[in-house]
Every structure is written in structure tokens, then in C-alpha cells.
Here is the input.
Amino acid sequence: MPSVQLSHKQLMIILIFVIYGTVFITMPRELSVSAQHSGWIGIVLATFISLLFCWMVAKLASHMEDVDFITYCNKLLGPWLGRMFSIVFLLLPSLLFTAFTGRILIEMFVTLIMPETPIGLLLAMELLLRLQLVYGGLNAVGRWGQFVVPGVTIILIGLYGLAAINMSSDRILPLSNGTIPGILTATLMMCSAFTQTMVVLFVKTEISDTSKIRRTLMRTVTLAAVLYLATYFITIGNYGIASTQRFAFPVIEMIKDISFFEFIEHLEAIFLAVWVFMNLTKGSFSLYVSSIIVQQCCGLKNYRKVLIPVCVITYFISLLPQNMIQAILEYEEIKGSLFVWYAFGVVGFLLLISTVRRKMGRI
Here is the structure.
């Protein structure tokens, strides 16, 4: 067990960045398309469902005791089946998630700031930054998140506050006009964001006080829900449903339209800097998780031995999409409809087996 462990404050910051860091730039569009003005209902319903999921994750984490997640899967399912399960259902999704987090970050940077710069070059530079951060261990990622969160918070509050000046209640009303299927679709999409809290299982052995995991997860989901609600209402209040549905990235468009004292404009560069800090933290954490999954699957003692190979694999996966803007929208759509089932399925399946075997005295 590491001598320097992750505090719950650091864990909460990382999880907020994981849950909120990427999805929020497209979230108002996705909710308005599926649920019209009722998108906020999807956020609220997803919050309550995800609090149940937090309990499931914390319960499974308590069953693990001092064993890492991959080893515990092997104990529950046997060495061969457990390893196959870890590779197919844990490692492959983690690698895809890591790769697309970096690609989305770089794509937005190229689109807004450096349109002529080769994607591959910026991806390599971004991976080097993540590699340097992850090489210091999870605690280094946690300290980085703790360092940037005050600035991120102040700038986001400032930008959202300026954007709120342009809100109109006529664009927000009526508060509910979506269909039940549409609201359910919005709920599943938001659940897919909140259930990313399952990543805590991979780093459970590196958390300072594991008895507080459930409380930290529930606080994280609640705070993320508040952020999502604020983002949704401010965006809809600026553009209305019809315009929000037409924008690929409505939050970025909203920031572009901010005018302060009629001469300070184009604040999207400041917003992009905040977004980079959030997603660098998120990407570093996902790279660390992918590396320790490979390490534990291979039975190695140190994740640093596989860090560079994982970076190389991540790099080539991230280069695969040609039309990244369309890929981002499709990725969020697929993830929004499927990830919640994947998360509940994996955690629920392992929790069921763990509970049964514990009652039978076989673990």
C-alpha cells in the first residue's frame, strides 16, 4: 500500500473532473434534443439513481478490503475467467476512454486556437504531459487537481455569471414539455456521466480512509448535479431550445457570445484554458487507471513498467477517428445510452457474486 495516499478532498476533485470535465460542453444539446425543456428532470432523476449506484460501489469496495480490484475479480471468478473479464470489461473500455479524452481535448484546442497544427503532434505533446504527471503516482495527479481547482472554480463562476446576464425566462419556460421516453433518454445519458464514479474501485487501495468512500461519492454526484443544472439552465436561458439543438458545443458558443463592458470579448480562450486543466487531470487519471489495470493483469509490481506501452496504444487509438466533431457527438450518444447499463452491470454482477460467496464463507 502506498505510503502517501489520496485524500478524500483530492479524490472528490478528480471525480468531479471525470464526471463533469468533458460531457458538459455537449450536455445542453443532448438534453434539449431528447427532452426539450424537461432536460433538467433527467438530471434530477439521474442524481437519485446514481446515489444508489454510489452505495453499490462503496459496498463492493468494502468487500475488497485491502485487495486491488483486478485481484479481487480473480478471487471472485477464478484466475482465467477473472483475467478475461478484466481485459474485456475493464481494460478495453478504460483504454478507449483514455484515448478519446485526449483526442477530444486536442480537437477542441485545434478548432479554437491552432487550426493548422497537426493533430498527431499535439496528441504526442499532451500524452507527454500526462505521462510526466502520472509517473509521479496517483497522489501527484491528486495534488495537481487540488492546485488547479481554485482557479477553475473562480473562472467558471465568473464566466457563467457573465453568461447568466443574457438569460431570459421566456427561453427557459415551460419547465416541462418533454415526452416520457425523451425524459428517460435524458436520464440514462446523465446516469452514464454520474456512474463514472465506478473508477474509484481501481484506486481503492490508494485512498486514505476507505470508510468514507460512500460519503465522498454521494457528495461528488450531488455537486456534479448542481453544476449540470446550472450549465443546462444558463445555456437554455441564453439560446432557447431550438438554437441549443443546432449547436454542436452550445456551452462554447455561449462563452463566445459573452461581452464584458462592450469591449472585452472572445473569452473562449480563457474557457479553453480551464477546460484543458480539467481534462488534463481527467486524462492523467484515466491513463493511471489503464496502466494499473495492465500492471495488475500482468502480475507486475510497478505500473511504471507498462506506462509507456499504454501511452503508445492510447496514442494510436486516439488517431483513429477522422471526423472528430462527428465522432464526439456519436461517442457521447453511444456512451449516454450504453455506459449506465455497463456500469450497473459490472458493479452489480461483481457485488452479487461477492455477497453470495461471502455468505457461503468462500471468500
